[in-house]
Give the backbone structure.
Amino acid sequence: MTSAAKFNAEVKAWFDTNVVKKPLEVQRIAVLEALTSAVQATAIGNEQNWKIQDGRAERGLPPYKRKGYVGGRARGNWQINFGSPLREQLNVIDKTGVTTIRRGMAVARGIQQLGITYLTNNLPYIGVIDQGKPGTNPKYKPWSLQSPQGILKPIIDGVLARLRSIR
């Protein structure tokens, strides 16, 4: 058996064992991969990048700084749930994303049957971070300089590409 044929046989055996015989485990892994990707792609607020500066630069003033502001709320609000989307906003700051991913791991471990698992972020401004200005007019630059390509579209494109490659 050639090395390519051996490799193909190993991949098929892995697929048959892990996807065909263990679809629930594959679902859990896919859910965690989507969550991890969303968390890592979500920018942490940096007020020096904010567009709304009230003309401060023109007046020689430093950038706007909101008292007590700490970035990381959007990153900490990603949630997964089996069966129905969650609707609440979390009062969580998670700059690293570790807490959010651990919370998701606990939910994924609890999935006991195949079905739809929802990835949500219910902050009112997550759409702006993901898609750019309200209305997503292509003539505007995205509001997020840290994630100018958005958050969800690259994740969805990556998952679809991986699914298409499975034969």
Notes: The chain has one domain: 22-46+69-165. The beta strands are 79-82, 117-120. The CA atoms of residues 89 and 122 lie 5 Å apart. Residues 23-41 form the longest helix (19 residues).
